[in-house]
Amino acid sequence: MITRRDLIKVSIAGAAVPLASAKIISAADTLFPERFEKQNIRWVFIVDTKKCVGCGMCVKACKDENEVPYDANITRTWVERYVLTKDGQVFADSPKGARDGFTGKKIDRGEKGFHDIKDEEIQKAFFVPKLCNQCESPPCVQVCPVGATYKTEDGVVLVDRKWCIGCGYCIMACPYGVRFFHPVHRVAEKCNFCYHRITKGMKTACVEACPFDARMIGNIKDPDDPVTKIIQNERIAVLKEEYGTNPQVYYLGMSKEVR
Amino acid sequence: MKNYVFRPLYVIIGLVIAVLIFREFYVPKDFGTHGESYMYGWHRKGNEEEWKAFKVKYRFDNEYCKDCHSDKYESLMQAPHAIIKCENCHGPALDHPSDPPKLVVDKGRGLCLRCHSSLPYPQSDRINIRGIDPDKHNPDMECSMCHNPHKPSLEGLK
Fold first, then answer.
1. pLDDT of B46-72, one tens digit each?
2. Residues near B59 by Cβ (< 8 Å), separated by ≥ 6?
3. What does the pLDDT read at residue B158?
4. Cβ of A202 under 8 Å from any chain B Cβ?
5. Are residues B114 and B87 in the same domain?
6. Which chain B residues are closer than 8 Å to A209 by Cβ?
7. Which domain holds residue B71?
């Protein structure tokens, strides 16, 4: 039974929360965010899909480097295989995120089993590595109710593991599906361009691991950076441009079948 | 108006003050808008340092292995496999040989098949790597029984 007293208690508690937050998000804070020192770094990424051979060394290195449980079917970066047949069908797979590469011709269709495609039926086939796009307008950050995920001044979206409550809104909000739930820390998890490496002058684990230079990381605010030059001079594409997220992972050799 | 009408109001005010006091202590001082906007920059500044302090595990520097494993290094650097980092095949080696004292030696076929399982994909450079059919090319035998992983050469094999 809810007594009148209980009801009053509950409604008071409910009213207190928005009232309290009104104080914290004071006008000065929101309208005039502190002027940060002039940042001259904006990390961006290039993926050359033609160079990718699907060996999955990047996925393996990423999992080791970032302590993503190795045998769980979760990963911060993964490689997709696309096979387009002459009769117009599109097949795509990424077994275990390509942690062990692509060691056979059969397409892994999950519960539907494996699909064999004969060599002569192949019209086009290629690999597409995926990772967090570190969007300029990240929808995952917008939806976080507690301020646990944010964009740093150098453009990387991070998750505060102490502050994340594990609600999963960000996982749902990401149109690229790059976020997942970390089973050990029990918080949202995602690629952060190996923030601990790039801020020490190293490259990300996946970039270093790739023997074929299919991945590159650079600073788009540096006009002499090779990555900046490629973005300026080559034909590049981004994923799901129509979502307005302004992704910062650029693809060379992209194809319309890639989602 | 009667006093009892105001009583719930005192309770509300009391609760609001309690929540504010709790919040003052609970929310870290460095929580705020850091970055260009409230929408994307509202966070705890200290977390950036926490991420920067995350432990590096991979060195990705074949030169580092040169002094202690000179034979492997010399072989690899002359081979078409020179583009592959030692750590790709042997795992993270930041503090090796102190920790771990030994690195993984994976003799499985899977390691080589990552690149050498034949996949005739015209739009991918995979097509340029010599491929074999894993089911037909000496199945059930380790590749390193016949090929030197550090200096694979087809000379003398044919």
1. 999 999 999 999 999 999 999 999 999
2. B87, B92, B93, B94
3. 59
4. yes
5. yes
6. 58, 60, 85, 87-88
7. 63-156
Q: Is residue B56 assigned to a domain?
A: no
Q: Same structural domain for residues B75 and B150?
A: yes
pTM of the predicted model as reported, rounded to 2 decimal places: 0.89
Q: Are residues B78 and B130 in the same domain?
A: yes
Asked if B74 and B34 sit in the same domain, the reply is no
- Supply the pLDDT for residue A12: 56
Inform me whether the C-beta atom of residue A32 falls under 8 Å from chain B C-beta atoms.
no
ipTM of the prediction: 0.89
pLDDT for B136 = 95
- With tokens 């009667």, the residue in question is B2
Q: Are residues B128 and B92 located together in one domain of the fold? A: yes
- CA-CA-CA-CA dihedral for A184, A185, A189, A194, to nearest 10: -90
B77, B135: one domain: yes
The percent of chain B in helix, strand and coil, each rounded to the nearest 5, is 45, 5, 45
- Select from B9, B25, B84, B115 the residue whose CB has the most chain A CBs within 10 Å, as the one to mutate to test that interface: B115
Interface test with A, best of B125, B127, B137 (most A CBs within 10 A): B125
| Position B87 in a domain | yes
Q: CA B91 → CA A47, A60, B11, B103, distances in Å? A: 23, 9, 62, 7
Report the chain A residue with the minimal C-alpha distance to residue B35.
Answer: A153
**Phi-psi group of B121: left, alpha or beta (phi > 0 → left; psi -120 to 50 → alpha; rest → beta):** beta
Question: What total of structural domains would you count in chain B?
Answer: 2
**Contacts of residue B115 in chain A, CB cutoff 8 Å?**
53, 55, 101
Task: Tell me, yes or no, whether B52 lies in a domain.
Answer: no
Question: Nearest CA to CA, how far is A228 from chain B (Å)?
Answer: 22
Nearest CA in chain A to B23: A20
Distance from CA of A212 to the nearest CA of B (A): 7
Extract the tokens encoding A106: 């059969």
B117 secondary structure, DSSP code = B
- Residue B128 in any domain: the answer is yes
Measure the CA dihedral B54/B60/B66/B68, to 10°.
40
The 10s digit of each residue's pLDDT in A68-85 is 999 999 999 999 999 999
Q: Please give the pLDDT value at position A223.
A: 94
Do residue B85 and residue B17 come from a single domain?
A: no
Query: Does residue B136 sit in the same domain as residue B68?
Result: yes
Question: Which residue positions in chain A have pLDDT lower than 50?
Answer: 17-37
